[in-house]
Amino acid sequence: MTNEHNETKGSGSTAPEEPKRAAAVGAAKPAGGDVRRSAAQVAAKVGQTATKVAEQAKDEITQAGTATVQAVQQGVADAKAKHEAHEAFHKAMLEETRDTRKIALIARIYGVLVALVGLATIPFMALLIMHLFRALRDGEIGEEVKSLTFILECVDLAMQTVSAIFLVVFGIVLLLNKRRYALNWTYVLIPLTIIEILLSIALRGFDLHLILPTVQLVILVVISINVDPDLRAERQMERALQRMNREQHYEKALAEGMAGRDLSGKGYMTLNFFNIFWMFVAASVFGLVIETIFHLIVFGQWQDRAGMLWGPFSPIYGFGAVLMTVFLNHLYKSSPLLIFCASAVIGGAFEYFTSWFMQTAFGITAWNYSNEWGNIDGRTSVMFMAMWGLLGMVWVKWLLPPLLKLIQMIPWKVRYWLTAVCFVLILIDGVMTLMALDAWFGRMAGLPQTSPVAKFFAHYFDDQFMQNRFQTMTLNPKSASRY
């Protein structure tokens, strides 16, 4: 009984402990799951926090970048506003200058004089034209109608008539203080006056007939400078500022390797007087060297092929290079074929005109291509036009860039006075050359050499000197229009 009771007691005491263990075990299991769930929740929260931090950082970076862009845009807007304000102020000042500033009294007096002279000249020119038509109708002129001299005289008569009419209008415009219109009329009258001077040289040589048109040309240039309100306002308001800006612009462009370049992108180089003048000088020397070497190789003979009294200059190449630079400046990115064709046409036309003018004015033949295939009056030919095309292509594509850099190496502080001095020297050389050629023509034509100028050239630049200096030229007075 005791044993059974003890066993029963023992078994009874154990039975309640088993559910407790099971409950403990069961309770322990859910606790481990909660830990894992809690860890997962913590990890999720950490991930969410990291995502938020990343998004906040991204937003801050974006905001910072946006702020930077906005700051740059604001700076550009401010600069643009300042520029527009400056332009508006400048425009207002120009309008004020244009409207209120009167043309100088001496210019208005000149306007009255040219208007009166023009009014007096027009009837005289009309009578000459009527007489010319009557002579043509009645056959009084005869075979002279076909001569070059008669044609040039008719052109000269027409140009003088047109100029007289334009001078009347120009004088009235000056008198009425119409600055802008006066400026436009100077741009019309200046080339007309230059043409009159060239026609006078071709028909009568260098004589007193050149005084009036030359004086008129100088006066027109002076008036065009002084009546231009833009130039006048710039001189009055921005002269010192422009010097500073030009120097700063030059230094900046020099540092960027863009000195002398056209920063607008419309052409390769800036077409200002400084660049064009030194292009003329360089091309005159370079062209003379090339032509001399070509003649030496082809004909085996050294010949002085200079075209001016002093210096190693051949101006036909200088003017040709200037024409090509001006007309082909915007084609520097074009194909070599297009540049070649354009250069051939420009060079051939200029060569033809130069030959015609030299023969018409002075009876001089510097070249004759009559034996060449495809020649045009012996003044140019297909082969030499092709050579002009090749020179133009080489000039625009390969020579112009390094030459422009070389020109820009002239120091800023000396470039203006140096250019001015050299221009005056070249101009004197050119004028003396033309006068020496005219005196040479007069001696060969048997004209009396009694004037002091004629005696001066006969003494210092006699026939032997001219023949030795201009070895490529032959002078025949009978081929000139004024013989």
UniProtKB/TrEMBL annotation:
Region Disordered: start-end pairs: 1-37
Residues annotated as transmembrane: 109-133, 157-176, 183-202, 208-227, 276-297, 309-328, 337-362, 382-404, 416-437
Keywords carried by this UniProt record: Membrane, Transmembrane, Transmembrane helix
Pfam families, A to Z: ABC_trans_CmpB
Keyword Nucleotide-binding: no
Family matches, as InterPro entries: CmpB_TMEM229
Keyword Cytoplasm included in the entry's annotation: no
Annotated Low complexity bias: 22-33
The protein, known as: Membrane protein
Native species: Bifidobacterium gallicum DSM 20093 = LMG 11596
